[in-house]
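Hi R.,

Here's the chain you asked about this morning:
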Amino acid sequence: MADFVAILKKALDKHGDETPEKRTRIYDSVRTMLAKKLAEYSPPPAPEAINTQKRSLEDAIVVVERD
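And the predicted structure, written out as C-alpha cells:
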C-alpha cells in the first residue's frame, strides 16, 4: 500500500504554502492519478482492493489537512 500521507505532503511541499483551493486541486490530481494507476493493472484489482486504496487516500487527506 502506498504511503499516501508522504505522497500528499511531498506534492504540497513542492508547491509551497497553498490556499485551500490549490490543496483541493492537488488532492483531486492525486485521486485521478490513483484511479488511473488502478485501472492499468491487469488483471484489475478486486473492487474491495480498489475501495481500500481510495479510502486510504481519503484518510490520508484528512491527516494532512489536520496537520
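The chain has a mean pLDDT of 91.

Let me know if you need anything else.
M.
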